[in-house]
Structure formats: structure tokens, C-alpha cells
Please model this.
Amino acid sequence: MVRRTRFNDSDCPVARSVDAIGDWWSLLIVRDAFDGSRRFGEFQRSLGVAKNILTTRLRVLVAGGILDVVPASDGSSYHEYVLTPKGKDLFPVIVALRQWGEGHFFEPDEPHSEMIDRRRGQPLRMLEIRSADGRLLDPDDTAVNKVTR
Amino acid sequence: MVRRTRFNDSDCPVARSVDAIGDWWSLLIVRDAFDGSRRFGEFQRSLGVAKNILTTRLRVLVAGGILDVVPASDGSSYHEYVLTPKGKDLFPVIVALRQWGEGHFFEPDEPHSEMIDRRRGQPLRMLEIRSADGRLLDPDDTAVNKVTR
DNA sequence: TTACTTTGGTTGCAACATGCTACCAGAACG
DNA sequence: CGTTCTGGTAGCATGTTGCAACCAAAGTAA
Model:
């Protein structure tokens, strides 16, 4: 099971996020959900994960409000796992990980799956970090306000 | 140690990214590095992680080209861990996780650390996913081209 | 309606990773 | 110099993962 958030870190949103999805499989399950997987077996075949592990991960994601269990869309009496709004809000996280991976783990000519804009069939624009008034920022232009207790 | 990438997933950039940083501590170490932590002891106190765990995580991150070991900036003979360019490219991932956490794990009035724009002291703009030609996209506007082998 | 397959699990066990505590060497510090 | 600080190792208990075997309910074809 995923670890509990540590006390001295609980006021950092990154820590709470990592607590919810910070293990190997959870993020890949969410990625697959964005790619259209809905059924237990789809996730299992796509990921190659052991079934007991998948069972517990799906349960954690459902308990965490990231996936929802709904009746199967094909009319059978099985059920399916779909992203909740909270789960869909992970989209920028997945895109960020995808772009980082594309940039650093593949040779320029190496084939890899890629995310495209449906309308034009083009790859997405790189993510940009901007200030409230629209300036492009890099890490050095930012700071973290630590909460004092 | 972090798990090896599975064969049936190795062509997905998300999988390779998760393989590199997809465990509890690695991402929090990177976050701390963005926040200015450089020394072993700083990371340890900030995270509350056992020293042997921190040792192996730092080694994995250095081996993965995300952190670099450099001589200490204070002239002592100790050394420090700093983000490489590859590590700095994780900035959007951290920001995405931070924004997701802020939006879903805190009450509106609950205090938490926040990332601000140094120049104006304002929180950052929310990340936006855009097509190559600049249209705002949501998950349903995108698709993933799977590589066929 | 009966036999077979698919789906979505559960269970038990072995191996591995994690975390705690104690210890330790070299550098800094007074 | 003697003490403290820093950055680790080592050993051991516990927790988590992964594999393989098993299983029941639902679907399917005759």
C-alpha cells in the first residue's frame, strides 16, 4: 500500500499529490484511463501487472476519488473504471511526464507513442509555466512560500 | 530500488519517466532541490527520510542524470546535490503536481506552502494544455498514437 | 441445459524493498 | 586536541510486490 503522508510534509501540495498517485502503477493506470482503458482486463493486458496488484491499485484510486466504478457500457453486468473530474485534472501531470520522457529518454529517431491533438493530428505544444500576468517563468523566477506553524 | 521498465510499456514516454522518478521519495527530493535544498542533511531534515533510503535515492537520481554532485558552495570539503538541466526540465511536472494537490487536497482556507512568481509575489497561472496552433485542449481533444511493433 | 470460455478477481508464499536503530570515519570547530 | 557535525554503512524486523494457482459468476455456443 502507498505510504502515509509524513507530518513534516503534509502542508505541501506536492507531497499530498505524491501520496495519492506516487507509485509505479497508479500513474500508468491513470495514463491508460486517459488513453481509453476502462475494464480490469484492459488495464491488466496493457500494463502487464499482476492481478492482485491491479486490484489493490484500482481500489486505492477509487477510494481516492480518482477513478469511479460504473456499470459496463456494453450492457453486460460487469463494471468499468472511469476517471472522475478529479482524475481528469491529472491531465497536465500526465502531459508533463510525457513531454519530459520524450525529451530525455528517446533518441531523436526512436519510435514512441505520442499524444496528438485530435483535430489537427499534431503533437501538443510544450507546457509553459507562466506568472499570473502571463510572463514565461523558469524555476529561478519562482519561490516557495513555506507555511510556518 | 525502483522497478525496471516493463517490456510492453517501454515505448511510452510516461512509463520511462515514471521509471526514473516514480517513487515516493524521488519526486519529493526533486521538489526540495527546486526549493533550494542542496545538502544531504537538508534533504534528510526536510523529508524525514531514513538516511540509508536517502543515500540510495540520491545515488539513483545522480545515476539517472537528474542530480549532479558538485563541491560544496561554502568552501568546505563536503559536496552538494544540484539539479542537472534534465532535472530542471522536471519543473512542469512539479508544478502540475502542486496545482493538482492545491485543487483537490486542501480546504479553501487551509494553509499550505505555495509557489509564487518572485517578481510579483503572485501564485502562478494554472497550466494549460494547448495544441501546436495554440488552441486550449482538454483530455477528450487528444489521442495517443500507439507505436505498432 | 449443459459444457466451455472469459472476466474479474482471491489466496498463499517467496523475494525484495523499506525503515529503524546503532554505529562510524572524516571534516569542521572551539 | 576534544567535541560536534556531516554524511554516510550495517544489521535486522517488517511491509510490499510479484508470481502462480485457484475460483465463482457471467457470457457463449450446441
Residues 128 and 134 of chain B are 10 Å apart (CA to CA). Chain B has one domain: 7-141. The mean pLDDT of chain B is 91.
